Amino acid sequence: MLERRRWDIFGKVVDNFGDAGVGWRLARQLASEHAQDVTLWQDDLATLARIAPGVDPHKDVQSAAGVTVRRWIEPLADPRPADAVVEAFGCGLPPAYVAAMARARPAPAWLILEYLSAETWVDGAHGLTSPHPQFSLPRRFFFPGFTAKTGGLIRERGHDLVAGPAQRLCMGERIVRQMLEHETDIVKNNSATDMTLANYDFRFLREEELSGQLCYVLEMRPRRVDRILLRGQIWVDSITYLLHRTEGEPGKAPSWWLRNARIALVYGDVEGMWLQTASESTADVRFLGRHTMRSQDVRYHVGELVAANAQPGR
Question: Hey, how many other C-beta atoms are within 10 angstroms of the C-beta on 160?
Fold first, then answer.
């Protein structure tokens, strides 16, 4: 279960059902599928009520589908900012609310949810910051999209409209999986990440038994700042000099979304070949809590390699 956080989602109905619907779906998904405490602020509850069962257009404050729905009326009285604040489609936030965000410690995260786009420039714009002109409150753009470099799509669980499992992930889960899967770039077998003196400096730390084998534990330090290199330790067999385990953190922070990222790779004998057999990536994902993605990477049959799908764990 994700760590419970408070979310405020603000939206103004300009494009009729589109603006109302996206805010509602995101709020409902965070509440129902991730157990988050979500308040949806919208200025036109009559439009929302036509597509959201249980919403009464005459009530200023109500609860529907686990979401607190509030009519956006200014000025706001005694605003209390949430942990994460979503500004949908550049609607702006109430001035009193922004001032309260500036006073809050720690400052809330401010995400600007943009419209869905398939244009290529979205890949480079997703996650960029936009400093506030008055307060020290960085805002970050969140672009839904169709590539791994965007925020993905809102997709409720159980709606298998797209064949691929990655596309079926809801947006909240997509955030988690997308960030952790960036870490798996480290496990790819290429010269840029090999355990060589071209990529790392090594220092002997100690001897230690691992899975019944005496190993030399070496510190490894990347020779360049790169998110696909690890800063940590390796376990090398004292007799065969084969690599048994690698564990560490990325040499460069891979994403603003992740903190305390940690990666462990395990190696072993498979049909007479020494290969990576498992991996585990863990990280604190901002506002969504601690997540882990584990993988039993390979199963072998004679002459055939079968890749097992990595399943994110919690």
Answer: 11
Note whether 236 and 246 are within 8 A (CB): no
Beta carbons of 289 and 308 less than 8 angstroms apart: no
| pLDDT of res. 168 | 37
Residue whose tokens read 């700042």: 225
At 120, list the tokens.
């290529």
CB-count burial class (<10 Å; 0-12, 13-18, 19+) for 145: buried
Number of separate helices (H) and strands (E) present in the chain: 5, 18
Give the chain's length. 314
Who's near 217: CB < 8 A, 6+ residues apart?
204, 205, 206, 207, 208, 233, 234, 235, 236
Q: Which amino acid is at 163?
A: A
pTM: 0.55
Decide: 94 and 11 in contact? Cβ < 8 Å. no
The arrangement of strands across the sheet holding 311-313 comes to 200-210, 213-222, 230-237, 243-250, 258-270, 273-285, 289-295, 311-313
- SS3 of residue 111 by DSSP: strand
pLDDT at 2: 63
> For the residues of 221-259, what is the DSSP string, one character each?
EESS--TTSEEEEEEEETTT--EEEEEEEESS---TTEE
CA-only gyration radius of the chain, Å? 23
Place of tokens 């991996």: 279
pLDDT tens string 100-118: 999 999 889 999 999 888 8
For the sheet with 84-88, list strands across it: 61-64, 67-71, 37-42, 6-11, 84-88, 109-113, 138-142, 129-131
Name the burial class of residue 165, with classes exposed (0-12), middle (13-18) and buried (19+) by CB atoms within 10 angstroms of its CB.
exposed
Which of the residues in the chain have pLDDT under 70? 1-2, 15-16, 157-193, 253-258, 271-272, 285-291, 293-314
Classify 22 as helix, strand or coil.
helix
